[in-house]
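Lay summary

Proteins are chains of building blocks that fold into shapes. Our project writes down both the chain and a compact code for its shape. Here are two examples, one after the other.
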Amino acid sequence: MDTARLEEEYGLSEAVVDEIRARDQRQLELFLKLTGGSAAVLWLFLTVSVYARSFGSAPVLGLLVAPLLALLGAVIGALPIALVCGVGVLVLCPRHPMAGALERYQAAHSRTRPCDVCILVRGDHGPRPGVAYCARCDAWLCPDCRGRFDLRAIAALRAARARDGPPAPGSGASSPRAD
């Protein structure tokens, strides 16, 4: 980064940029903990509920089927949980006051490149102007996707799945830090 230009035009120093990135990283970690914990609690609740319902008629079959049905319910419920957790993270850990200035700097000085959210959600690999890095999402975002928290949540879940397990064929997942 051009530190002189950061200071003059945007009022940012390297320390402030590092602080913004550290806060964004804390927000990401809090989001993942809240989303993962909430989905795990939902899975546990659904498992107990299904088993309790089947206990009188088929307890052994309920032991086998309850975790699978609960997993299906937790996967379906994960997207609304992720959206609620995303809003909760913004309330619990608000953005840095200078984060907007850093985004404007990045947008003004970024080159044209593909947006990771567009790749993961829409399958669009085309380059877009004004793409900036978001440490909170650990992804490169175009101006269209920057305000779409629903698409960002879907992309974060798909990127986490790609990092944790083998990549799905044809997923098109790319690492934002490769460039």
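And here is the second example, written the same way.
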Amino acid sequence: MMGIGAAMLAAPSAIEGPVILPISLGHALSVLDAIAVLPLLAGSFFLYRGLWQRRGPLRAVAVRMPGRAGALVFAGGFGLGLLIASAFSAFFWWWAVGAVLFGACLLAAVFVARANESKGRP
């Protein structure tokens, strides 16, 4: 679902439709963007629900490796901060760096949760 939403957000501006809400120079919410939010939210719900259900194994790994866990949380927060800041400021292309950082941290959390689940760890 998140892939569908991301593909809709990556559509060329010629097919996005009229602007609903201008945010900043170079950023605006169009009709297609507003529709793309629905599959993104649905996919995010399933992702975060799965991570929440596996929070015990994630916590165990964070306790075993606090430095790596702290660095991962910092990088994810920094990436999310870049995403938000780039939408409301002149950091026009910094959203890509933020998206890569935030996405990589989410993927790392998913891989850790899946690996510990398959090993039968709490």
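What can we say about the second shape? The chain has two domains: 1-53, 54-122.
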